[in-house]
Amino acid sequence: xxxxxPVMKMSRLYAPTLKxxxxxxxxxxxxxxxxxxxxxxxxxxxxxxxxxxxxxIQKIEQICREEMDAVGAQEMLAPILTDAALWEESGRIxxxxxxxxxxxxxxxxxxxxxxxxxxxxxxxxxxxxxxYKQLPVTLYHIQDKFRDxxxxxxxxxxxxxxxxxxxxxxxxxxxxxxEVYEDxxxxxxxxxxxxxxxxxxxxxxxxxxxxxxxxxxxxxxxxGEASLVWCDCGFAADDEAASTTVAVSEGPxxxxxxxxxxxGLGTIEAVAAFFGFPENGTRxxxxxxxxxxxxxxxxxxxxxxxNDIKAAKLFGEYHLMTDEExxxxxxxxxxxxxxNLPQGIRLVCDESLKASTSWTCxxxxxxxxxxxxxxxxxxxxxxxxxxxxxKPGDPCPHCGKPLKGGRGIECGQVFQIGPDKYAAKMGAxxxxxxxxxxxxxxxCYGIGISxxxxxxxxxxHDEHGIIWPVSVAPYEVSVIALDKxxxxxxxxxxxxxxxxxxxxxxxxxxxxxxxxxxxxDNDLMGFPYQVxxxxxxxxxxxxxxxxxxxxxxxxxxxxxxxxHLSELVEAGRR
Length: 574
What we know:
nine-stranded mixed sheet, BirA Bifunctional Protein, domain 2, 15 helices, alpha+beta, YbaK protein, Rossmann fold, six-stranded mixed sheet, globular, 32 strands
């Protein structure tokens, strides 16, 4: 039996709408959440969630809880403040950088506002989980986090304070960790689906969290901050993590090394146009200084870019050479290449070029390029590595078909951390079957709750406002009284009461406003279904039901309206 709910009257609802788009709002989610009276900015990257947004946040949290509980995770709550000494133990206090907010208490002890809680949870269990018989255990909490973003922007998409679900698993073996990880992947996919998000699970870089396996759940959106590639065969990856064998063309000529004058042609575009072949027939050379201060020339196909994440893993904290450093190593911007490379410079080339035997590349002399350069004959490669950022059109590494591309909003990410990143460093161990102390095999699993709210709006809106999926809508039905009083107003109030009695979340627009204002506000706020009640319809024994998502309007008999909407709402809740 459905639980009777209260009716929220629009005249009492705290949802201060805006008629104009805020100048600061670049994304649809930021603009519409502000205009619909759902969030308000307190300071840069800090937002208050007003009643409508908070109702949706609570629904998103509940979906998250249900999916976490279904895979055996247990909810708890850890402090927002984390002891800086724990971050010293893990070695992350320096690596995390200025985004980690530090503060001192009255005793001079340093704490951090937790952007994530790996250290806290590892410390929590290291003296409590003592035997393999107690494992695996997964703990989670839903909590405010804080990252001191240099440039917070895009509303809830990149804020300094945000709501996050973070879970941490502790296993005795890699096999056990893998099982928990797979369960979590399934839970994350269901979470996205239930929130109404079209999301792709994509292979991702683990970043400062650490670990060797990671998947991000990306909600597809033009406003997404991450570039994605995917294929209909099921492959998907963040372009920072994707790997493939890039298709390249051979340069002109018969394979004989030839030096060609190319005056002023210091760009890939100019060189390709000069020789009359595609840009991927050229070779792009980048001079850099690796993390140990050594010079390196990295070469990738001409139509691709050096991937910063992959390069950082190979070269450490590298940087592209400055003009002064180029001069020091006798290198010339726009004309760098592998042939006649000055001594002492390491040459690292993208593995896609390994089979290529006719390179068009810089000649290490201003205004000259080589054609027909061949690895092994004309120059020696010190290492073949995966260097490029994969892009749409590259072959899928699984099936070979051209990859598709787009942008995505990261709503969640799962990591296999293993034993070394935190457990071993922090002395978090358990006794195995033989009584020997072993570090936990850890997993980490995060969901951006407040970011999910923004992602839903990015995927579900039109020129009139938000279009909430029923599952996360602040209210499921709005009842709009076209008259300020009289029989139609009384009928609208009665319909709202009956819907609430049937367990439907209802807002009753009882305001003394013109119908056009009411329609505009209800569309802006995005309630999934609108019941429009006017004198003409009441006298005919009908009301109009509008589906916000499709715009479809249906005349429904007064006697059927509760059953009709109950069926629609119940289907949307599932």
